[in-house]
Amino acid sequence: MAEKLLYPPPLLSHEEVANDRAAFMDTLRRFHSLMGTKFMIPVIGGKEMDLHALYVEVTSRGGLAKVMEERKWREVMARFSFPATTTSASYVLRRYYLSLLHHYEQVYFFRAHGALLRPAASALTKTPRRKMRGTSDQSPAAAEAGKRMALPERLGGEPCSFSVTGSIDGKFEHGYLVTVKIAAETLRGVLYRVAPPPPAAAPPPPPPPPARGRRRRDPAQPRPNRSAYNFFFKEKHPELKATHPHREREYSRMIGDAWNRLAADDKMMYYYFPVGKLILELKLLVQFCVSLAALCLCSFQ
After folding, report:
1. Does pTM surpass 0.90?
2. Residues with Cβ < 8 Å from 83, sequence gap 6 or more?
3. Residue 49 DSSP code
4. Which of 228, 246, 284, 301 is most buried, judging by how many CB atoms fall within 10 Å of its CB?
5. Which of 90, 123, 156 is the last residue of a domain?
6. pLDDT one-digit tens code per residue, 258-292
7. Higher pLDDT, 295 or 64
8. Which helix (H) or strand (E) holds 251?
9. What range does the domain containing 67 cover?
10. Domain assignment of residue 223, yes or no
11. Is 218 contained in some domain?
12. Positive/negative CA dihedral, 56, 61, 62, 65
């Protein structure tokens, strides 16, 4: 079981640390080291915050709880020269006091000892809403648009919540004019409406693949010369189709085998097939004429 964290004893009195900044910073660093909490001097507007002055201003008014209950944060803020860019000084001061000085205050100002003490209820509860000057002419629609919500924060391990309200004062083409109230601070600004990014353009479709199939021949292009095997194939194909009608897939192989078995002298006729065909036709015509003449002579006799 983890041991319960206890306050360390004070090293100096409240008057000593309040009157000596060096003693205050030394005891504050040792206090956070003994407590095992992180200590770092806040930087606002490029300058380190004067934690000693903050501690003195708050404790001189009775401590954090009393400052919260009596609404004296504006008096504390007057001690500091915040830059113009710091629009929520009250919130910043309370945040760092809770995280860095609250427990230190319990030990050195209130002389607390033993178990850790949580911040007073006035430091943690929501600040009551108050009507601000110059807002009486706010339209009911804009007032109804305001939303109230708790803003939980972890300040040095302690929970803290603040009152946050907002209203829409106007509308223009690219956003809204808004007023936001955080605790006792009122902030006014512009809330821009970010347009959604345009959808990414679809990539162009890929080009269609080239059409497959037989390439059309140019009618004006002359036909290539046919080989001897082409003439042989053209002659044998009808013969195979008549003798083997169901073996069409084997015609090319059968004709090729027949061509290979063909004698060289017989192949010569197909190398000169056009001329040989003409000579053969002439021989047939001569034979027909001779036969016809012989028949005519026989009939006269």
Report:
1. no
2. 44, 45
3. -
4. 228
5. 123
6. 888 888 877 777 776 666 666 667 777 878 887 77
7. 64
8. helix 251-261
9. 6-123
10. no
11. no
12. negative
